[in-house]
Amino acid sequence: MSSRSKSRNESLFGSRTERTYSRWASLVVLCAGTLMTILDGNIVTVAMPAIQSDLGFSGPGLAWVVNAYLIPFGGLLLLVGRLGDLVGRKRMFTAGLVVFTAASVLCGVATSQGTLIAARALQGVGGAMTSAVVLGMLVALFPEPREQAKAIAVFSAVGAAGGALGTFLGGALTQAIGWHWIFLINLPIGVVAWLAALRILAPDRGAGLGRGADYPGAALVTGALMLTVYAIVGAGDRGLGGTLALAAVSLALFVAFTAWQARAERPLLRLRLFRSRLLTGANGVQILMIAAMFGFQYIGALYLQQVLGYSELMTGTAFLPAPVLIGILMLGLSARTIGRFGPYRVLLAGLVLITAGMALLSRAPVDGSYVTDVLPAMLLLSAGFAAALPAVTGLAMSGVLEEDAGLASGLFNTTQVVGGSLGLAVLTTLAASRTDGLLGEGEALVAATADGHRLAFTVGTGIVAAGLVLAAVTLRPGRASSTPEPEKAEERAEVYG
Questions:
Q1: 15 phi and psi, to 5 degrees?
Q2: What is the pLDDT of residue 492?
Q3: SS3 215
Q4: Which of 31, 49, 125, 298 has the fewest Cβ atoms surrounding its Cβ within 10 A?
């Protein structure tokens, strides 16, 4: 082969030692892996009654189908995010796909309560490995601020729409061919995503375990996070005293972790990260926003089934406008809107819309109609979420150093899980307590249930309003950050507020 032909072939296909990797194809792979984990986190919601009937779960026991996934998922995100920085984010992402897919198959073939719960816990481990490093990889792929805003909009659209789409797929698959297939469908998706990741994602070496393998810190923070999620998700069954005791132990572990990080030679979590008002404020806002949205998704599905009498398939279909609108707005308008008005204004506008949607739901009557009492609120919530999520994501990652991107990504995903768990625990507990109290007073079942749901939506309105106030105070442009940032981080910070 002539040198000219050889040079031409290498320019088209890459040399044997050096390939050219497509950033946008890599984004597709990252979105596919994320979509699978997000779908699975929501797809079980509508299938819960069928799982309970088939495997004989009690009411409190059924909650562990969700809890067993959330506890390792939320507890491990920070640790595996940091490990991704050290061993290589591609390696962590692909390994997570393998673990998650294998665990999904175990869930699908489960014939006993113990097997399903154990497999769900393993799914949580795989989901954490896959999700924790994605934002760090995305920031590295798209360092230029405006391209990064577009990539974050695409990624956020997939994540947000995937959550709502999971409710539809859960209802459709459960009613058509059985609940087992809500897990088994992950097998072909996972295999394709894994093969594509091996081929398309550029390899990265990582800093090496010797540069940050803080095992005492890892044990303290993982234990603290798992105990926090466990305390939140089981609060309704445990009672106030038990929940406060677990919260106290969790707080003690966090204090011990912070003290250790302040003097560790190679800390797992560099405490200087929290000097960034963007990172800290955006994570706080996200906790409150996700708490309300996750509560809406769960309580909204119960309202449709328990009050309006919808079937699983009808409930899933009723949620379809949400992912459609979220996808259209995020992909078509989000990046351009953020570029024109700035993420701070877009975030505030989104939180206002979410607050309005929750307020509408707080009046959902016992003889309500989907078209007049649910759909308008769902559209407001979807539009608000489509605006707020990319904006808060960009703000959180804008001031982060490249070497900390995986850790910051894990932290951001951790606050999503904590927010979702907190919203689910608080709102479902309030709804159940209100319903039980009214039933004890002789109220009819459907009326009491509807009243409990209205209380949950009212509290959810207050939670989002608190997030709006927090965003207005902490994320306002022009306030100086005390975190020393290199030139590229400063450039991103200018775009993101």
A1: -75, 175
A2: 45
A3: helix
A4: 49
